[in-house]
Amino acid sequence: MPLLNREPSVYPDSMFSDGGIGSFHQANWWCLSTLARSEKVVSRLLYAQKMPFYCPIILKRFRSPNGRFRESYVPLFPGYIFVAGDEASRLAALKTNKISRGQLVVDRAQLIADLLHIHQAIEAGVPLTPEAKIAAGDRVRVRSGPFAAVEGYVLRREGKTRLLLAVKFITQGVSMEIDEALLERI
């Protein structure tokens, strides 16, 4: 059982549903850098203000100092939150005093596609491994299965094939183990 309940990581809840994401293609997107360990606080504040945001959260298992296994919900990309809105939305987020800087995302369509792929992987419950930097590799597309049409990069680690799902704007991503037979080179 996790130490604390999962907190809101996306507002509105329908942001990544079939019809929801379309309304956010026209909005400006901001990549906000939070102060250390402030992602959940900022998420709570933005949720209370009903401001559209996304902060990917995953369940992490760890061993406590007394040797027991614990679970906790942690941000997938420490230090980052994505906000959709206008300049007033950005300023409202900055007023939380938990943001160190905010960058306007130039390629909104690419960011939305990247975040959608990350959201799909989290919702599917596959084990994800955060990757600090995007590594060079073959660009691939998944041919079939629950992740059909998802694009990413191939990583090889300990003889296993992993698919890297990247958020290019912050040069970070996550990887998941995948059967190589499901992949096709782009």
In short:
The protein is an alpha+beta fold and 186 residues long.
- Stretches where pLDDT is under 50 for at least 5 consecutive residues are none
How much β-strand is present in the residues? 35-45%
Mean pLDDT: 88
The counted number of beta strands is 13
Q: State the helicity in percent bands.
A: 10-25%
Number of helices: 3
Please describe the biggest sheet, giving its number of strands, its sense, and whether it closes into a barrel.
Answer: 6 strands, antiparallel
State Rg: 17 Å
Instruction: State the separation between the terminal residues, measured CA to CA.
Output: 41 Å
Query: Strand order within the widest sheet?
Result: 8-12-11-10-9-13
Written as H for each helix and E for each strand, in order along the chain, the element string is: EEHEEEEHEHEEEEEE
Structural class by secondary-structure content = alpha+beta
3D shape: globular
Features:
single chain, 186 residues, 3 helices, 19% helix, globular
Explain what the structure shows.
There is one protein chain. The protein is an alpha+beta fold and about 190 residues long. Strands 8-12-11-10-9-13 form a 6-stranded antiparallel sheet. Strands 1-3-6-2-7 form a 5-stranded antiparallel sheet, with helices on both faces. It has a two-stranded antiparallel ribbon with strand order 4-5. The mean pLDDT is about 90.
Topology:
Blueprint: E1 10-11, E2 29-34, H1 39-48, E3 53-54, E4 57-63, E5 69-75, E6 80-84, H2 87-94, E7 99-104, H3 108-124, E8 129-131, E9 139-142, E10 151-157, E11 160-167, E12 172-177, E13 183-185
